[in-house]
Amino acid sequence: MWGSVKLALACAIGLGRSRLVKSTPCVIGVDIGTSSTKAVLFDATGQEISQHAIGYRLYTPTPGTAEQDPEEIFLAVVQTVSQVVSQAAQHGQSPQQIGCVSFSAALHSLMAIAADGTLLTRSITWADNRSAPWADEIKRSPAGHCLYRRTGTPIHPMSPLAKIVWLRHEQPDLFKKTAKFISIKEYVFYRLTQQFWVDYSIASGTGLWNMATLDWDTEALHVAGIRANQLSQLVATTQVLTVPPTVTAAMGLLPDTPFVIGANDGVLANLGLGAIAPGVAALTIGTSGAIRAIVNHPITDPQERLFCYALTETHWAVGGAVNNGGIILQWLRDQLGLAATYEALLAMAGTVPPGADGLLFHPYLLGERSPLWQADARGSFFGLTLRHTNAHLVRAVLEGVTLNLFLILQAVQEVAGTISSLRAAGGFAQSSLWRQMIADVFNRPITIPNQRQSSSVGAAILGLYALQYIPSLEDNPFGLSETGCYQPNPAQAAIYQRILPVYNHLLTTVQPTYSLMAQLQRDLQSEV
Description:
By secondary structure, this protein is α+β, with helices and mostly antiparallel strands. 40% of the residues lie in helices and 20% in strands. The protein contains 19 helices and 23 strands. Strand 17 (307-312) and strand 18 (315-322) form a beta hairpin. The chain starts with a helix and ends with a helix.
């Protein structure tokens, strides 16, 4: 049966999607994240049948380094799928009922592979900042702005383009040995199929891919100092790949189970949250955070504040991701020595009025991606007085993270049109205090979907679309139930409207000093 489906899919773009399979099967969505890989088996209505997650280490042996073990992640993929299939069997679900396995993955990882397939590096993650000087050089060059406008990827240490330039200049022997530069998702599929494949969505986050031609960008390759054949074969996010029976058997799947290559986790989160219609944006906030809206053609920002990444050839996510989300609350708790749960911290913040009695916080402790794209950005409290307490600090941190996200929303609206509502998800979006704060700062209704595995859900929906079980991505077979909708409080929204210009003025004033401060910190640390 599946052999004929795969054959039909090979011509799917040319033949259209008018012929649909009658019944929707179960589907596994696999999300290869930065901290863990999670596999979720969904039934035909989108209900979770089983799920399993496996975490892995982030290696940070030197300042700026953030790497992972590719083989550890590949094994996590195999084991999580195997576990959800095994768990499903205990609930009466057989492998015959699984229609496909579809994939989501984090963006911006890079590893170097030798000609014989040997790993020359670990997986260098988006959080690795060692290429920062080279990213700055590219950004300042005459080609920098044009590269961004063609590729949709802001020039930043996170991008594989900057990482490759760094390797070429600082590890030339390793660079010369490299036959392929790939992401962690490409490595997983290389181990699954023994071939190098990359979907448009992952490629669109490399800084090396041209959004107009859907091909590798000639000038970006020149800047990187590599050839196109050192990158993987480009395919659509709906591409179905054949996996050997030995691998499917290890996962407990039937030999001919289709594997859909899928997309990146950010754009799939929009799909999973139902935020793909005009005027609707997705806000995800956990350790980090992001805001994305879906448009039908590539759009870039003249001020370079936003990314533009592919979901399909007719669905593009415009938005920005921040380094500094809920992790800042964790930092504050630890530094204040508060033996408190996050719920207790949020309760503390609730005892302080909006605006934290004039205490503002710029949440750039980890540098920042959007809207600054400045690895040397630094955090700051402004307006501290003797009357401010720990509760004020907590409230100011929450508000600072939220105000920074609002700056991204403003940029999105400038290039993509009015955003009238948001759908929020992520660990800290479960807090009623923070939900209301978002509604007040953004001055828009915030809907909370009843779906916490948004990237896995998005991967599953894309898989069903790839195999023609649904006619379009807008025809969500899983439904979109909600746990609540938060309306802005007019009085509190007015307070934040007064705060925002001050927040922006301070940012504009201190931003030019971030690099000076970062260099001072490095100098002082080197003298210790």
